[in-house]
Design a protein that fits this description.
52% of the residues lie in helices and 18% in strands. It is α+β, with helices and mostly antiparallel strands. This is IpaB/EvcA family protein.
Length: 317
Amino acid sequence: MSEEQEIKLNDANKALLDQVNELYPEGSVFVQFKGGRSGYVRHDQATQQTIPGALIILVTDLTEPNYTASHELLHLLMLLRGFPQIFFQLSLGDRELDEQMMIMSTDLYNVAMHRVVVAEQRKHGFINDRVEEEYLKGVEHTLTPESEDNDERALRLLTLLDALVFFGDHLAKYEEQLQNNYPKALAAAKKIYAEITKKPIKNAFDMWRSIVKIYSLYDQQMEEWGLPALNNDKFTTLSPVLSERQLRLEVRQVFEIFNSGMKDRKTGKPAYVGLRRNIGQNSFTTAKHSPEEFKQIYDQPVKEFLEQNHIPYIIRK
């Protein structure tokens, strides 16, 4: 019997899958297992594939198949329940650089999402001592120990920030090992972690605020180290979370529209971004318009503009 046939979803995962399928709008969601066992746990050990009428979550590493399946199902459940999403609508004009930016942006976004995902996994018993030890092995598989050659600083900071979210109150058991291997990156990650965990995440707006904060704090640390900032506040479109009152206001009262200096990924034409006032986060992208057309956009009620242009948004409750 092949390894993938022996693996079955446990009861907690079956319940999660049922919740996902109740909300999934375009058919059914299935989980499949295929692959070997690496002996470590990372959050890139599953993929999603869409086929007509179905979404398949494919667990590609069988070290902790139920942990990995639950992780993917919880991410999907959060999106189906209306948590903010990110979109990549802009290009810097270099495909490889765009790809790197999208990976880093998604990983930082996931740090925020993992505050909820990992808490739920712990609540439902998907994380035990063995999974924690395999997760630590995953960190060590990803990173080399710190040395004078610091070209891995960006990846180390990102990986350790995610590790702090994962270990949470259980960090003490693994801290010495992380400290020995990555002292500078761990100190920087702890500084960001302390900031982002000051407030709990209770709803979509809390999550939106946490994502914006992580993007900003990560860039501050990059600049402190003399490395280029990612500028995800401009590059990454984060679905806005708006109150009913904000939706009734004019566009000019909630957003400022700027020339991004980047191109639209689909059309290759100059792209303009709608930045949230006082916060500066990219909430939508638009094409170049005449001054008169921009004035008309600014005069529109926010809700009308977003819906007319099929721009996803979330209502703040």
